[in-house]
What does this fold into?
Amino acid sequence: MEITISMFEAFLFITAILFTCFGYYMARDKVKNQIGTIVEHTIDGLIEAGYVKIRKNKNGEIELIKLDDIYK
It folds into this structure.
């Protein structure tokens, strides 16, 4: 079996690789800058759905409750 690649196909392949690397780099940078917001929204969603138990301290800050504290 003989495989032949034209110049056009090689150009398309190289272009696809370059844009894939560029897209990966841009997405990685964007996620790195927004990781705190992503985690905050995830935890807030888990609290609202009832999967995570919380209590508020004297300063009004939210504290997560450990399972050991619930099942003593």
